[in-house]
Amino acid sequence: GNRPLFYYFAAEEAVPHFGSKEKARDAVDRLRNASRESGTGDPYIVALCFWPDKGAQALREVGFDAIGAYCNPPGVEGRELAYSELTGLNRWFWNACKETGVPVVPPVNAGWDPRPRRALAHVNVKGNWCPNVAPDELATHLAGALRWVEQSPETCEARTLLIYAWNEFDEGGWLCPTLAEGTARLDAIANVLRPAVAPEGQPEVPRR
């Protein structure tokens, strides 16, 4: 419906942050009203969380429109993971969110490697990491996520997803061009998103 898309990070902390469910809901209502009054429209607010059940609880308590995640950090065992393990975690999260019965905007991890942050004395970063994601692996995962959205119209009412991330270089998730890769990641996902050439008079359809 051409509504502005708004992501609320760490939504499970909304109630503690504002002090009560009532105050948190009032804050979200004031945001909606300000957006409407400005002529922008009623924002579609996605509650970004790390656990589906907590996200669904926040949605019901505060009045968000959908749940999702900024990213899915892959555990704390302290080992290197293959990208297939990270994408498996994404798929688990999508389905676990779907089982809560609330609308979902699924996340797609372009990687995860927070080890550079360990060089900072004030940052205590532990956990697993997934380095060196190949552009074609990312494209394949994105195509699978798009299929999941298409196959879940009631769950994915906004028909969108969130890719982590544009430039989280010190956390290992990025799409931004780099000296090492150039535009390889953007080129790979463009091949997934670019419409195929349709016969004359036919609407263009996304290529998968």
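Above is the first protein from milestone M3; the second protein from the same milestone is given next.
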Amino acid sequence: QFIAYEPVIATLGITNLAGRDVDLHDADGQAWFGFEVTGAEGQLIAPLRVTDEQPPLKIEAGKRVTRKINLTPLYQVHDFGAYHVRAHIYFPDLSKFFYSQTKVFEVTDARPIWQKTVGIPEGNPGPGNVRTYSLLTNRFPDHTSLYVRVEDKDSGIVFATYSLGRILSFDEPQAELDRVNRLYVLHCASPRNWAYSQIGLNGELLAHSSFMETKTRPRLTHASDGEVTVRGGMIETPAVQ
């Protein structure tokens, strides 16, 4: 299950059982690799753009290779509902297609819990335009996840949607903006453990770290220079750029 605009990563495994080395490459006007994606009603979903050209691939006899491909920028899979996807390989030696098993995934929307629209300051690409930050939660059978979405609602462009990790559903996340309108989020990921994230105007995850609750609970605060810092608690893993 994914939420709308979140990356949908397909992991493709190719095992060579031909008894000899094989070379997979485009031939006969046919790309050697591709996907078939269909919606809940069985309608074929055309690619938004031509799949990134895959370079030729040589697989030795008995070997297995894997590839990870993000379907979200390639296909219109952000409308709510179920999707069926299978990969196909064109084997030019036999002029034949080989198909993977079909996998099913569902796209749903998450529950918005916080939203703020901000301007892009001078010194950044697109000054004067606006961005809308949203925090959303999605409940799974065994946990609840917190998501961030960054979009330009005027143009309808969604720059990023991704999970910031698990969140304890009874504890609201903290969200603050610094003087250049970057977003800072601090949320309780598990008892006494807090996750800290810094998000840029185009959805970049600029930093991510975790804090342990000690005698004091960590909190986001504004410094005198407009920067946002964490007060309280003890850092467990330093911020990773």
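Note on the second protein: The first strand starts at residue 2 and ends at 3.
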